[in-house]
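Design request, tokens follow.
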């Protein structure tokens, strides 16, 4: 049981802790977009130059190998993943992993929409990973790197053999720019700008290894492909896509915003600095969880705890005695109290996840803001807990 706590007096300077769209970089303002190429064609010489600059800076900050291709594609990370699934799968059997909502979406697409009869599904409950040792890398393997809705990430890429015969297709949307991705073990990597770098939505990025590019030129899927999914034309890779010639019209405001975020990331020291900032945010919450008896991580194994989409569960006996509907209503009250006080926005668990809290800990979040949030979390909990 818990007694009421006094309302804290200090609030986070930035109360935005949403897991997507994610907080803007520290110091961001609309002035960051003043140089945006609005009113100009994205196919003009300067338009293509901006798009190519975004591709080149992505390569530099992430450390993408020189022989991997990077393209800007429609429909956020979802569009990038769908593009890979529809364009590449079917040449071999496929293994697909799911341990949270978005991985489950890819299972549904592969099994139902693409109706790939050679698909094997490996699933785990929220908070855990499937058995990685059961995957067969003579087949194509599809997975998320970080479970955005479960707070469970892959600890590393050691489970992927270097001599694999199939392709690895990795949805890395809440991992890119916050976690080390082992490029030599990944053939397709996708993400969206609005995650770790806090960019504006609607655009995705797809990164292809030479092995994935070869598949595109040697395999024709037995299905019609919508225009926005076409990475190859008449048996040849659409090389223009990887030089900034996008399939459809991008927002040059969003491109400028992404460029601003990439320049900020580079100014900090690139990927190592971004990872360090995100890890510091996880450390703040981990220290608080360790000393707070009513809360715990949803991820059971510390090695798999996400440093971006940090998912927490209430463990107090009075709470666990409630049914699922009552638990959801209770955590909704905590979220509403934090919102009303302008202490934290958008920190409820994903709608399909177990009731709880989800705090974004990516590099655009200041650890001082998380420190300031902790007393508010305790206050909100005391407001809903039985006296």
């Amino acid at each position: 049981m818990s007694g009421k706590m006094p309302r804290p007096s200090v609030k986070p300077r930035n109360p935005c802790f949403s897991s997507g769209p994610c907080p803007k970089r520290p110091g961001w303002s609309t002035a960051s977009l003043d140089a945006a190429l609005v009113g100009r064609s994205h196919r003009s010489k300067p338009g293509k130059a901006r798009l190519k600059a975004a591709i080149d800076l992505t390569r530099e900050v992430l450390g993408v190998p020189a022989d991997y291709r990077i393209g800007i594609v429609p429909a956020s990370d979802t569009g990038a993943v769908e593009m890979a699934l529809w364009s590449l799968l079917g040449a071999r059997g496929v293994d697909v992993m799911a341990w949270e909502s978005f991985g489950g979406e890819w299972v549904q697409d592969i099994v139902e929409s693409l109706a790939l009869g050679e698909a094997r599904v490996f699933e785990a409950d929220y908070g855990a990973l499937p058995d990685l040792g059961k995957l067969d890398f003579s087949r194509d393997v599809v997975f998320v790197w970080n479970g955005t809705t479960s707070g469970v990430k892959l600890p590393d890429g050691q489970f992927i053999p270097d001599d694999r015969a199939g392709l690895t297709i990795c949805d890395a949307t809440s991992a890119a720019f916050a976690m080390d991705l082992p490029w030599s073990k990944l053939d397709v990597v996708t993400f969206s700008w609005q995650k770790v770098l806090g960019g504006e939505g609607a655009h995705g990025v797809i990164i292809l290894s030479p092995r994935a590019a070869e598949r595109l030129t040697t395999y024709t899927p037995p299905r019609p492909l919508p225009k926005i999914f076409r990475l190859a034309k008449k048996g040849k890779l659409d090389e223009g896509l990887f030089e900034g010639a996008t399939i459809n019209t991008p927002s040059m405001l969003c491109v400028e915003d992404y460029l601003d975020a990439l320049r900020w990331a580079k100014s900090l020291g690139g990927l190592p600095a971004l990872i360090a900032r995100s890890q510091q945010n996880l450390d703040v919450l981990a220290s608080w969880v360790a000393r707070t008896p009513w809360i715990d991580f949803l991820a059971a194994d510390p090695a798999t705890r996400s440093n971006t989409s940090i998912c927490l569960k209430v463990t107090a006996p009075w709470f666990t005695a409630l049914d699922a509907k009552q638990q959801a209503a209770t955590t909704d009250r905590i979220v509403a109290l934090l919102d009303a006080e302008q202490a934290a926005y958008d920190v409820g668990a994903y709608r399909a996840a177990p009731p709880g809290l989800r705090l974004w800990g990516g590099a655009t979040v200041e650890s001082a803001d998380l420190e300031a949030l902790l007393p508010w979390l305790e206050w909100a909990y005391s407001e809903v807990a039985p006296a």
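Comment from the thread starter after seeing the answer: thanks! The mean pLDDT is 97.
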